[in-house]
Fold this protein.
Amino acid sequence: MTAERTFIAIKPDGVQRGLVGEVLGRFERKGFKLVALKQLIPSRDLAQEHYGVHRERPFFDKLVNFITSGPVIAMVWEGEGVISNARRMIGATKPLEADPGTIRGDLAIDIGRNVIHGSDAPETAVFEIGLWFSADELSSWEPADQIWRVEE
Ligand code: DAT
Ligand code: MG
């Protein structure tokens, strides 16, 4: 059985502002397991598929322009409850409404520059991981100190 996995991306604002280490560090320190990571400038096709549910929204074109404007760090993180817990670590969509202590609450101001994406449900996670990664880009591995994070 494969443990729960989620798709997380640091958006171009986060990369440009030098926040990659800060964001990665939070997931690492929490104890989730990194199973894939790459940097890419997404194509418009990829961005439009990724944000397909927002296709009819007035901000869609702006959103696609933004996410394709520079490098994105695409990642897959694994662990029990990682999908919903990553969303809690990320915070509310509007950074000014995101709780302090969350990534958006601590690091952002503007809804269009909110640093990070995280899958919002199990079906979304499966779709987004498959969209951004091929199966051979995902590593199954056991961190040497895993026993100190979770009891078997
Ligand atoms: P989230 O990223 O928290 O899952 P979402 O899926 O509702 O939020 O929207 C995707 C992204 O689109 C969001 O991170 C920022 C942008 N966005 C959402 N609502 C917006 C709005 N009203 N105006 C401008 N951008 C918006
Ligand atoms: Mg969303």
